Structures are given as structure tokens and as C-alpha cells.
Amino acid sequence: MPAINNSISNLSVENQTFYDRTLLSRLLPDLHFYNDAKKKKIPKGKGTKIEWRIFKSLAVPTTPLEEGVTPTGKNLDISPVTAECSQYGDYVTVSDILDMQGKDPVIAETSALEGEQAAQLVDTLIRDTVTSGTNVRYANGKASRTALAATDVLKGEDVKKAVRDLRKNNAKPFSDGYFHAVISPEQAYDLMSDTSTGGWIDVNKYTDNAPLLKGEIGKYAGVRFMTTSNTKTVDNSGVAVHLGVIYGKDSYGVPEIGDGSAAKPSIIVKTDGGNADPLNQRNTIGWKNMFTCKRLEEKAIVRIETGVTA
């Protein structure tokens, strides 16, 4: 069936708003990575390239000042980090009969499904960027991914070493005072089952009533842990290696296009197919957005690769 490319929308403003909200109902809750990203606005009409400007720390002046002598001073070290946004999108075609006579509210349900689809795309694009760096730790002190066994599961010791790396690199915690982490449900199970002295169970015997982030399972060793099924897994000779990440503030960035958010796609509902659909037998429900993700501070992200308990 051909795509309807030359049609126009005859939706009312109220209906358009309704479908936007329906899409968002599935879109927003899942974006752990997006919520923590450093946002950079691209004004409407200013192209698809985005640039972050990273100001490097100034060297500490260890030489005392001489009386009456002006020191040399320092030059700013500003590193531009650029990325090119790409357009993504998808659509579904439904017949007029299904829309009119079907038992389900097809357009509304499709809008919700596409919101979930768009959320998974954004989350996956960021996940793949955040987990692609070179700053990595392997569970149980292993030296490489190929050395990992299924029994090398996530423990508190691995988390503390990753936090040590971040602090040595002067990574900044978020405004809540914590680094953030995204791990798989399987990794969360292993971490929360750690009974060693100073492990998760030992440390979390007494917890406060501080509000949790969406998807958060708790805090440990200066890290707030969120879990999602959309983590990356790679095969290592039959061993499923799970890739979790612990990261600091402003460690990666995403764009915001015009007046909106790149996490919120445009919903497009068309019910008039023009010459390509002379009897108006097909409706299309689609979405599109512009997006990219870029690592901004390599040393502010630590990937933790582990096996998991079956």
C-alpha cells in the first residue's frame, strides 16, 4: 500500500491537542537518559548542527605572586563539541472502515503506541552513545569483556570503584548530590542481593524517606540507581554481558529544537489522502522528530559490564 505523502490534515486544534497528549502519555515516563542529559537549544531555522562549548578547568597557580609584578595569567581552554541532528519517524496506515467501525479507538491507540515507539528510539539512541565510551570497569575485577563469566555479577564493590573513578576525574554529581546510574533489572537484582559487608543490603538496612526518581530502586555509594529493560546486552561466547552506566552531571548532551523538546515528536494524523486516495479509504497516523546525542565529558561516564544471575 503506497504511503500518503500529499495529503492534508483536517483535524481540529482540539483533536490535534488530544492526540499529542495521547502520544505523550507513553512517551515521557521512560526517558531516564533524556532527563539527565545536558540540553542545548537549536533555534528554529538555524539548521541541524549543534555545538556545545566545553570550558576546561584552569590550572592551579602554585607560584606565589611577586610584589608589584603582574603575573602572566591564563588563557581559556574552550573545546567545541559538535553533532549533526538526524530526522527519525514512522507511521501507521489504517482503513476508514477500521477507524469508523472497529471496536477500539484506533487513532488514539495508535498515537499512544507511537509515543512508546518514539520514546524507545530516543532512549536507545542516547543509551548507545552513553555506553560506547572507553571508560569501563568489568565486574569482579576482570580485565576484559571476554574474561567475564555469568557469575561475575554486579556487586557493591564494583559500584564503589566506579564512583572512585568519577571522583578522581572530578566528575560533578547532579543537583541532588548524587551520581546517577541506569542498569538492567537483572543487574539490579544482583546488586540488591549483595550480602557482603558494606554491600547493598548492609548499607540499606536503614533508609530515609526521600522521594525517589522515576524508575529509581534506591541509593548506594553516592549513586541513585534507575532500572530499565532498555539496557544494552552483548553476547560473549554464550554469556549475556549487561552494560550498565554510572555518570555525572553534563556528561552527555541532546538538542532541543525550536520551542519544543527533541524528546517530544510531532504527531501527524491525516484523514484526506488527496489524489492518491480518491475515496478517502486510508488514514495515516505518524510522528517525526530531529535528534542526536553526544558525549561531552568522557571521564564523567563509567560503563560497568557484568554477567547476571540466571
Report on the structure:
- The protein is α+β, with helices and mostly antiparallel strands.
- The chain contains seven helices and 15 strands.
- The chain has helices spanning 13-27, 32-36, 96-101, 106-130, 156-168, 185-192, 200-203, and strands at 38-42, 49-55, 78-84, 86-95, 136-138, 179-183, 216-220, 223-227, 232-236, 239-247, 252-257, 266-270, 282-291, 294-295, 301-306.
- The strands form four sheets. Strands 5, 6, 7, 8, 9, 10 and 15 form a seven-stranded mixed sheet that branches. A three-stranded mixed sheet has the order 1-11-14, covered by helices on one side. The protein has a three-stranded antiparallel sheet with strand order 4-13-12.
- A hairpin with a 2-residue loop joins strand 7 (216-220) and strand 8 (223-227).
- Helix 1 (13-27) crosses helix 4 (106-130).
- The radius of gyration is 24 Å and the shape is globular.
- The two termini are 44 Å apart.
- Residues 1-14 have low confidence and may be disordered.
